[in-house]
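ok trying this again, last paste got cut off
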Amino acid sequence: MSTSYLQYSKLILLKVSFDVTLFEKELRKCLRQLLTHEIRELRHWCRATFPKNFRRIMSRCFRYFNWKKKSMNSD
């Protein structure tokens, strides 16, 4: 049974969540591999799964994808 990269990313992020620096590094690696709709799903999952002290890291990592989405809608 194959596992999607999105599911694999979630598993990795859960395993490294003990260290915020490692979490940020792994989140950035995941974002490079995922498709746009998968990134959106991962963002929602992260916000629901991890405590508020991860919010700054998540917003820093997802910032590029928020900007990209807004610029695409302005055309």
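PB: full thing came through this time. Helices lie at 5-16, 20-33, 36-49, 55-73.
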